[in-house]
């Protein structure tokens, strides 16, 4: 396994380098020149224009700029943003990343669980009316035009003409945060840690109890889940910033609901198809012949072995969810990495665009490695030399 991981890491480095080359080439091929935004300013003298062009590195040829970029990137320096000059790209990403990660990690996890359990039930109840209704509804949501559906959800749940239950856009309430003793990122970061700890605890509980009897397993799992929620609630109530975390969570409801409705069908259909193939295997017939209950056959035999393609899709969706935030974040006015990427692309802010692509590319490469390693744990038949 160790030799395989080292080999895959070497392949990731090569692939990542080629990804950087292609991305930078595409950025340089875009028409126009960012320098003209400032260089055409009539209030600047010719000397100031030349000094600004040299300061931005726009006086050098593209290949030389790329080599300098690679050298700086190796030391952790992603450059200075043109749009937010003189703010470094790394500081912009550190500011925007927690907002995007909180939104899309939560939405991806929720849509995965909803899709997995729905797909598992559909495969088990194949041929019934509930299968046709759920499948058709899921496919319609999966193929819907995202901006239109997001605006529809905002009109339905957040406008005066609709239910007016949820906030309309943004990620905080300005009147509440005007005199806040902390910044939004100082709340986002512990919220992320809380979510990771709770998710890890739930996952560990499920793994530790998977060999127990059904009733005992359910009791321990639900008890552990309740204990984790109570512990998280106590922590936030005593933290002094719980009201601000609650405000962020309140603003998260609508975009998470929208993303879940759009994305759960992909996992649902993949789980359903994988389960249907698994149900034809000989060991399922053997389990039925042993007299095992339908629930045990479905959950412990069929569903577990159907997880391979589903988990792969889930891991990849975690990596690429952030790039999909371009549309969602702009519709909901959520100031995350997707909104920053679109703004940077429109203004030809090459350092910020490249910084965002580097972040997404690294996640995608690591997601491939994580999926390969998970295969070995989910399927004992898989071995890596």
* Overall shape: globular
The mean pLDDT is 80
**How many beta-strand elements?**
0
The ordered H/E elements are HHHHHHHHHHHHHHHHH
Can you offer a commentary on this structure?
- The protein contains 17 helices and no strands.
- It has 385 residues and is mainly α.
- The model has no long low-confidence stretch (mean pLDDT 80).
- It has two domains: 2-74, no CATH class; 89-181 and 241-378, MetI-like fold (Orthogonal Bundle), CATH 1.10.3720.
- α9 (185-208) runs antiparallel to α10 (214-239), α11 runs antiparallel to α14 and α14 runs antiparallel to α17.
Helix/strand layout:
Layout: H1 2-29, H2 35-39, H3 46-55, H4 62-74, H5 89-124, H6 129-142, H7 146-158, H8 174-177, H9 185-208, H10 214-239, H11 242-278, H12 282-289, H13 294-305, H14 307-320, H15 325-331, H16 337-346, H17 350-378
Helix pairs in contact: 1-17, 5-9, 5-11, 5-14, 5-17, 6-11, 7-11, 9-10, 11-14, 12-13, 14-17, 15-16, 16-17
Feature tags:
single chain, 385 residues, mainly alpha, MetI-like fold
Quick recap:
The chain is mainly alpha-helical and 385 residues long. It contains 17 helices and no strands. The model has no long low-confidence stretch (mean pLDDT 80).
